[in-house]
Amino acid sequence: MYIYDHYDHEILRQRVAQFRDQTQRYLAGELADAEFLPLRLQNGLYIQRLAPMLRINVPYGMLNTQQLRRLARIARDYDKGYCHVSTRQNIQYNWPNLEQVPDILAELAEVEMHGTQSSGNCIRNITSDQFAGTAPDEVVDPRPYCEIIRQWSSFHPEFAFLPRKFKIAISGSQMDRAAIQVHDIGLQLVTNDAGDIGFKVLVGGGLGRTPVIGSVIRDYLPEAHILTYLEAILRVYNLHGRRDNKYKARIKILVRAMGPETFAQAVEEEWQHLKGAQSTLRSEDIERAKSYFTEPDYQTLNDAQAQAGVDALAGEHLAFSKWLQRNVRAHRVPGYAAVTLSLKPTGIAPGDVTDSQLERIADLAERFSFGEVRTTHEQNMVLADVRKDELFELWQAAREAGFATPNIGTLTDIICCPGGDFCSLANAKSIPIAEAIQRQFSDLDYVYDLGDLDLNISGCMNACGHHHVGHIGVLGVDKKGEEFYQVMLGGNASNDASLAKVLGPAFEAEQMPEVVQNLVNVYLENRTDEELFIDTYNRIGIVPFKERVYAKAG
Amino acid sequence: MPKLVKDGAIIEDTWQRLDKPAGDAADVAVPEGQVIVPLSVWLAQRNALQARRDIGVWIDSDENALELGEDAKTLPLVAVHFPGFMDGRAFSSARLLRERLGFEGELRAVGAFIRDQLCYLSRCGVNAFRFDDETTDLEQAKNSLKDFTEFYQAGVDQPVPLFRRRA
Ligand code: SF4
Fold first, then answer.
1. For A362, what's the count of Cα atoms within 13 Å in the CB-facing half-sphere?
2. Beta carbon of A459 within 6 Å of any ligand 1 atom
3. A168-192: b (≥16 Cβ within 10 Å) or e
């Protein structure tokens, strides 16, 4: 994991001091609301429906136990004893006091954390694969590049007042777990025929009001040039992106207006002036970044033997075997596995976690996974380096702590934004809908039998709950002051990314569990042995689902 | 006389800035003395104005700084304008002026920018700050230039990014 040196600490210390001064000026009436707004946003602070919300970056999802414990302490001392894992791998506090935010940021700075650029019209936290460094299908570990880009983008003087927010995601594996096709810039690490590392560059993807799959503007960019090339993209966007209408200000609109080829050309021209500048990465710069992401102290283990032990226990304990199936993933190192801790038990807002739970997770990480944890954009947490021969023990401990719901990737592992309970932009509540659906599907065996099924809920068009890329997507809409829910089907955030299609007229909140049940029934009646929900949908199309849902719900 | 911050000091602003013309830029009468003219006026009257040493040019946020071309090397002053402080195009325009066109004179921010943008603006090559808001406390504003003293990326002030300077 990256470790700050005195430069990083000094820069962050100066940032906290700057924001403390800005907050004091605001509270003293010397800084107008409109002027304080972007300054606080760029430190993570929103003013929400009920209270401020503070968003803390978790750079590409990596946390150590010291950071987890500090997050827990802050939840206890400054908030109501819990926080929330967001759909961009970040941590959100819902109840801080504005006056105390500089103190919170100072406490975070001590453990190398911050809210810098977690909101506002700037380059946001870089997101990546929660299984980076451990996944068997990984081509190149994305984390050193994430860190290089994190540093480049942090406090970037030219790009702090962009037309709109800007999100970059990086994937280094064959299976895209970072949803790079729906980011402003998506970077896919690749190797060329000579084995040299580079990036496939996508731009202009995004969800929100106008969902778009990104366009490839370069198939192979040698790794050395990544920063100058990003600078070229951002400069073209900063100068030419629309500023007259905030709904048309994202880079996807510019790319579409210019056409991806013309946009690519403009970037190429700009880049010709920047290429080769001092921001070009030398091999020692990349090596230095890589030196922070070396392997933990893996033991040489006999995989077959460890697996046999796991299998034997699975034979005796059905619940354990289901957990293995859903929450445990293969690891590239023999004898190890990656474990997802579910933050989605029924009745808890998806992604919410209490102070004492954070501390329990820190304990588990220390005991089982080299003291590191990752957050996921599905709003769970991952222990990425667990010995197989300790899985049973971990399962027992996780179950006791409430993290072992065997629902990862299933219908009840709902991705859900904070919605109308917290967010001032919401059209409708989302958390109660998630809970009602979880209750409808409380039979774990039933859910388990359904297999992979992504259900994503957003409280408004901003799509923080990624509803366009859910197999089932739910969007809160407002009709004359009443909350309704639009349902869509067929979205997918992975390699063969696709955007969901609207099923038909929106539903009332009370109808939602039944609607989802009907969709599931259509799947169950039509599926072949091997088919997941999305496969059946792709084969039979939207009509049978539509007929059933509106026949019954209508 | 109004004041501005230049090279870290508070001085009197001896320049007059002309508004954009409603009519033809070629017809604008440019007065005597130190005058900052709109880009359109400069482009329309370039031959006549070039003879003077007391003409600066200001570039609005929707104008292309690169249109100054080689002229940038001879001008004593270029200003980048903020119609609103959230319009961040001036940051890129400033860098283009310094890094692409080799402009070495006074690079001035004008318009609705705020004090909290000074540090980043100076990293983009701006060395003079003339606030539209004349109530701005310039002594305090000056302090914002030092909000940060170390930076990750290359800038006009420091073309070597931190990763190349780290021991
Ligand atoms: S999707 Fe809308 S309601 Fe949900 S968190 Fe985002 S802005 Fe708020």
1. 18
2. yes
3. bbbbbbeebbbbbbbbbbbbbbbee
CATH number, domain B3-166? 3.40.50
Mean local confidence (pLDDT), A111-135: 95
Ligand 1, atom nearest to A424 Cα: 8
Q: Which residues contact B59 (CB under 8 A, 6 or more apart)?
A: B39, B65, B68, B78, B79, B80, B81, B93
Residues A83 and A202 in one domain: no
Tell me the three state secondary structure of residue A363.
helix
CB contact under 8 A, A155 and B152: yes
Range of the domain at A337: 303-401
**Is residue A12 in contact with ligand 1, taking CB distance under 6 Å?**
no
Q: What is the pLDDT of residues A244-288, one digit of tens each?
A: 999 999 999 999 999 999 999 999 999 999 999 999 999 999 999
The string over A446-459, giving b where at least 16 C-beta atoms fall within 10 Å of a residue's C-beta and e elsewhere, is ebbebbebbbbbbb
What is the pTM assigned to this prediction? Answer: 0.94
Is the ipTM value over 0.90, yes or no?
yes
Would an 8 Å CB–CB cutoff place B162 in contact with chain A?
yes
Q: B148, A281: Cβ pair inside 8 Å?
A: no
* Average pLDDT of chain A to the nearest whole number: 95
Q: How confident is the model at residue A552 (pLDDT cuts 50, 70, 90)?
A: low
Give the CATH number for residue A336.
3.90.480.20
Q: Does A159 touch chain B (CB under 8 A)?
A: yes
Does residue A20 sit at the B interface (CB-CB below 8 Å)? no
pLDDT digits (tens, 9 = 90+) for A282-308: 999 999 999 999 999 999 999 999 999
Does A33 share its domain with A151?
Answer: no
- Give the span between the Cα atoms of A282 and B56, in whole angstroms: 40
pLDDT of residue A210: 85
Q: Is A464 in the pocket of ligand 1 (CB under 6 A)?
A: yes
Query: Does any CB of chain A come closer than 8 Å to the CB of residue B108?
Result: no
A223 and A184, same structural domain? yes
Residues A424 and A385 in one domain: no
Beta strand pairing call for A455-458 and A415-416: parallel
pLDDT at site A554: 47
Please report which confidence band the pLDDT of residue B1 belongs to, taking 50, 70 and 90 as the band edges: confident
| A-chain residue closest to B82, CA distance | A161
CA of A48 to the centre of ligand 1 (A): 11
Interface of A with B in 277-306 (CB under 8 A): 277-279, 281-282, 285, 288
How many beta-carbon contacts under 8 Å exist across A and B?
Answer: 103
Smallest Cα–Cα separation from A178: which of A349, A294, A86, A61?
A: A61
A162 CB within 8 Å of a chain B CB: yes
SS (H, E, C) A489-546: ECCECCCCCECCEECCCCEEHHHHHHHHHHHHHHHHHHCCCCCCHHHHHHHHCCHHHH
